[in-house]
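> example.struct
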């Protein structure tokens, strides 16, 4: 993904994604538009989840998590911070799914400052390695979002959620966490 920022104790990520580009991304974002790319991202590594038997179950689960917001006790902002926390801990602060949900958190209204503070709080309980990896993932994401947005500002269709999720999946492909107990 190019030059990656080094993780430091500095929690100021505001300079990595300009406000203009953040607003351009948010203008093209729809919570509902994230459901299909999320379904595809979740089922692609697990072909069994896309079979005629499992796919309706996965779609129903995603519908509960990401579908009709009026029936949920959590707001989109609360849901994304919860998911981001779980992914940062379980994926050791790295990987495409964390990248997707960090992006989604930004789109539903979390500021880079709020997200970096959340990642810092997580590390108090999960360790400095999670903080370093999470900060690296977040810094890389913000840098790439700024570049993608600047490169595509005149083509808003390239800033839609499905295009951004594709970029995140491609960009973080080599940064996927390994299952516990694996050797690599």
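> example.seq
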């Amino acid at each position: 993904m190019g030059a990656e920022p080094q993780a430091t104790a500095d929690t100021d990520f505001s300079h990595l994604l300009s406000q203009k580009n953040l607003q351009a991304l948010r203008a093209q974002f729809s919570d509902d538009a994230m459901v299909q790319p999320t379904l595809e991202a979740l089922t692609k590594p697990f072909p069994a989840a896309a079979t005629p038997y499992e796919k309706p179950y996965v779609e129903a689960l995603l519908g509960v998590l990401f579908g009709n917001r009026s029936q949920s006790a959590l707001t989109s902002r609360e849901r994304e911070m919860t998911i981001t926390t779980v992914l940062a801990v379980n994926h050791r602060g790295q990987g495409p799914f964390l990248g997707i949900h960090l992006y989604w958190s930004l789109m539903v209204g979390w500021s880079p400052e709020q997200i970096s503070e959340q990642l810092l709080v997580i590390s108090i309980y999960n360790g400095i390695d999670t903080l370093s990896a999470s900060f690296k993932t977040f810094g890389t994401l913000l840098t790439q979002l700024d570049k993608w947005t600047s490169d595509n500002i005149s083509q808003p269709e390239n800033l839609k959620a499905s295009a951004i999720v594709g970029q995140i999946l491609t960009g973080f492909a080599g940064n996927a966490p390994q299952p516990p107990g694996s050797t690599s």
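> remarks
The chain has eight helices and no strands.
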